User: Fold these one by one.
Assistant:
Number 1:
Amino acid sequence: MDSDKKPNFIHLVIALESVVLLAFLLMLTPIGGRLTLSENVRPAENVRSAENGEAENGASENGEAEKQEKTGGGNAEEAESAGKEGNGSSGQESPTGAADGQQDSGEKDYIKWVDFDIPAETLKKAFRCDIDTYLADVHLNWIEILAYLGARCGGDFSRYKESDMDAVTERLLAGEKMADIAADLEYYPYYLEAYTAVLGGMVGEYQVEIPGSQAPDFALPKDENGNPVPTEDNVWVTKYGLKAFSPIAKNYPYTDYDDFGASRDYGFHRVHLGHDLMGQVGTPVIAVESGRVEAMGWNRYGGWRLGIRSLDGRRYYYYAHLRKNYPYHKSLKESSIVQAGDVIGYLGRTGYSSTENTNNIEDPHLHFGIQLIFDESQKDSDHEIWIDCYELIKFLSINRAETVKDESTKEYYRVYQMKDPAIPGGAAEQRMPEQADVSS
C-alpha cells in the first residue's frame, strides 16, 4: 500500500470503530431500550392487523353508523364484522389468549380466546359418565373430564382417543382426585374455565312434567293404603341430567353442516360466527338454556333477532332471521326470564336489509350463535368470542322440546313444563291458555 494512502485508511478504520461504539452506547440508554422494544413489538402488531384485516376493513367501510348499530345488541351476525380477534389474537403463546407481558402491563386477567371443537360423541360419552354416577360414591364431573382431555391434546380433539377417557375415569372411580391427576397439565385450569363457560348451565337437577303412563311408581298419586295409582295426567318428577335443549323443536326437520368461519359478504366481506340450521318457515325456535332476554328487535344483518343471556352471565345466545310479521312468542319482552325448552320464536328468513320486516335471506334458516363472556368488556367489542356450535348442536339434539299449537292464535307452547332451580323464584310456566286455566 502507498504511504500517502495509509492515513486515509487509518482514518476510515477509526471512523467505523467510532460508529460501532456509538451504536453500542446508544443501546445502553433508555432511548435505545425503547427503540429496541418498538422494533420487537412491531411484528406482532403487523400479524394482528393481517389476521383481523376483515374486521378493520369492515369498520372503515361501514363507518360510525355501523358501530352504533352494534352497540347494545350483543349480536352474532353483525359481530361477524369483528373478525375472529376474540377467537385467536396474534402474539398468544398459551391457550388463555394472554400475550407475554400482559400481566406486567396491568391488563385484566381473563380468557380472550376459546376454540371449542369437542365431537358430539365425546360430549355424549362424558355426559353419560356424569349422570350414570350421580348417585354413586364417586360422582364424575363431565366438564372436568373434558377439560382434562382438552389439556392433554392441546384442545385439538382430532388427537383424542376414546381410551384416554376410559383411563381417566377408571382412575377417578378408583379414588384419585382430578386435581392430582391433572397436576402436571399446565393448561388444565384454562380448559376447565373455558369449557365450564360453554357447558356450565347444561347439566344439573331440575323438575319436569312427564306423562303419567311413563312415571315411576314413586311419582304416581297414592291410594289410602299408599299404593301407586295409575293416571293419565302429567306428573312432576325430579331428574338429574341434560336440562338444555336443541334450538329446533321436536318433530320439525332441519339440516345443517359445519359452516362456522364461512365467508359472508352482505355489507362487507366477513366471516360467519354462528351456525345455520336450515328448516321450514314457522318452525318453533326453542330456548337452549334458561336466561334473560337481553336484546330483541330488528337488525339489518340478523333481521328479527333475539339475544338471551345465561343466568350465570357467561353465555349469550343469539337467534336470528326469525319469521316475518310474527317473529317472537307473544309472552316475550326485553328482560323476560325464559326457561330452557320454552318456545321463544319462529324460524324465518328476515334480514340483510335496513328496512324492518324484510325477507332478504334466500333460504329459511335459524342463525344460532353462542358468545362467551369472561369480562363484560368483551360483550360488545372487537374482542367478542364466538364458538363453533356444530358439534354442540348435534349433542343437544338428544333433547328436543315437544310443542303444541293453539289453533285459535297460531301460537306454539311447550307440552311438558319444567322447573329450573337456576331461576331465582322460578319462571312462569308456558302453557296454552286453556291448560293454564285448568292448572290454576
Note: DSSP finds eleven helices and 16 strands in the chain.
Number 2:
Amino acid sequence: MNNASAAVASYNNTEYKNRVFVYEVVGLSQNNNTDSLNYPIRRSGSVFITVPYSRMNQEMRRISRLGGQIISIKPLNGNTQLEVSDTSKPVQQQPKENKKSKSMTQAKAKQDIPVNIYRPKNPFIGKCIENTELVGEGGIGTVRHLTFDISGGDLRYLEGQSIGIIPPGTDDQGKPHKLRLYSIASTRHGDRGDDQTVSLCVRQLEYKHPETGETVYGVCSTYLCNLELDADVAITGPVGKEMLLPDDEDANIIMMATGTGIAPFRAYLWRMFKEQHEDYKFKGFAWLIFGIPKTPNILYKEELEKMQQENSDHFRITYAISREQQNPEGGRMYIQHRVAEHADELWEMMQNPKTHTYICGLKGMEDGIDQALSETAAKNGVDWSDYQKQMKKEHRWHVETY
C-alpha cells in the first residue's frame, strides 16, 4: 500500500467515513488523457479535487494514471490534514492558485471511462456472493441475478458497460472456452454501495438442436446460472462506451428493453433514484418500456415498481406482456406495439436535445420500433431515418442488441 492509501486506511471506521475530502494534486500536465477534464490543467501549480470517502482509493488510482501526485488530503470543511508523502517523486513548492480562477472544489471531473482493465490472458478472479432467481412461479425459463466480489483487484466500471466471463473447461476442439460478454446490472458503486461488487442479469440459454431435436444449453449462461456461492469466476473488461449515461442530470432517458436487456437500465435507474449519489442527482424524466412474455418474467418487478411509486414525477414504466396482452390487431403485444401506441409522446420527447434513447435486448425489436417512429415522424414532415442519424451524431441514440 502506498503512503496515500495508508493515510486513508488509517481513518477507516471513524467519523471521516461519511465525509468529503479535498485532494491537492500536482503534476497533471495537459495530454490526451486529461484534455477532456472540465477543470483546468496547468503545467505547474495545484489542482484541488473533492472526493467522497467511499471513492478515495479509486480517485487515487485515477490521478496516478493521469501522471498526478497527491501532496495533501484535507476534510472539505475541516482543518486536519492527512499526512501524505511519496518518496518516488520529489515535491516542490508550487505557486498559489489564481484567486480569479474557478474553485476546484466546485468542479466535477468528467467521466473517466475504464476499458479492458483485465484481459482474457490475465482475467480478474472474483467470487460469487449472490445468485438468485428472478423469474417468478409460472414464468418461462430461468434468469439469475448474480453478484461478484471484486474487492481484491482494480476492476472499475460505469453504468452501461459490460464485462466478459470466461467459463471453465474446454470446447469440443479441446481449446479453452472463449469469453462471453454480459451487460452490467449494477451501478459503478455496486449493489452494496461500497464499490466492491459487480452484478449481472443472466438468462440460461436453452434451445432445440435443429437436427437432433435435443435440448442444448448455453455453455456460459448455464455455468453462471448454476454457480455456487464463494465460487471463483474469471472476469475481463470492462468494455463499451455506446450505452453510457449522459453526465447531464437534467437529461430525459427513454429505455426500451426486452428480457435481460433490462440489465443496463436497472443500473441507470438505481443511479437515478435509489442512490442519488453526491456526484449525480437526477432531475430529468425516465421512461422504461419493457417487453416480456408473462408477468412472472418481469425482472426486478418489485424494485422497479417501488422506484416508480416513489418517483412518479420522474419515472414511468410501460409493460408489453406478449402472452397476456393483445395489440390493436388482436395479436400478441410486443414492445414495438407499445412504442407505436405512445409514438407521439416519444417523438415529442425526442425533439428535446436533452433526451437520450436506449434500446437493449433482442435485435428483432429494432425494425418494429423504427416503423412505429417512422410513421409519427412522417406525420410531422420528417424522415425518420435522417432524424435517427442526426440523433446518433449527437450521441442521443444508443443501441445494444443481440
Note: The chain has three domains: 3-92, 124-239, 252-401.
Number 3:
Amino acid sequence: MFFSITADWVSLLVVGFATLFLIGELLVNARGVFAILGLGFITIYFSSFLDLNMFFIMILIYLFGLMLIMIDGKILNDGTLAVIGLVCMLVSVGFAAPNWVAGLYAVIGLFIGAFASLGFLKVFKKRQMWTKITLFDQLSEEAGYSSLNQSYRELVGKTGKTITDMRPSGTVLIEDIEYSAVTQGKWITKDTDITVVQVDGTRILVKEVN
C-alpha cells in the first residue's frame, strides 16, 4: 500500500480533501482533475482501515451519498435527497474508522471539505452541464423569452382600450395587439381608454385615461 493512515487526526485531512475535491468537481469545470484527486484521497481513507469487501461497500455508500446531494442540488432543490446523501457519507466514513476518535475526525473533515468546496466557485468556471434541465435554462431556450419581456417593458406609457371589463383584471388592446392586464384595484368597464403605467415581467398595470 502506497500510503496508510496511522494517526487518527490524519482522517480529518484525508476525508476533508476527498470531499473538497469530489464536490468541487461537481461544482466547477475542473476537467476531471478534482475527481481524480478526490477519489485518490477517499481510496486512501477506506483502504487504510477496511478489507477488500468492506472497502467496496463503504466507498459505494460514500459515492452514492455524493450523487444524492448532486441530484438534490441541481434538480429537486427540496433538501430531502441532500439530507439522505449527507447521512450516507457520514455513515460510510464514520463506520469505516477503527475507533470513535478517528471517526469523529473523519466526520469533521467531511463537513469542512464540503463547505470549503464552495470556494472553488470564486476561482473556477461554474459547471453548466446540469443547469440544462432546470427551469431557468428551459426558459432561456424558449426563443423570444427575453425579447418578450423587453417588448412588454416598451408598453409603458402607451395607450389603448379595454376589450373586456377590468375587475380588476381583463384584456386590453394596445396597437392592435391583445394583452392581459390588471388595474390598481379599480374596476374599468369595456371600451374604456387606458394607459400602461407599469410592467413587471409580463404583468401589465393599466389605469383609465381621464
Note: The helical segments are 10-27, 33-49, 52-76, 80-96, 100-116, 135-141, 145-153.
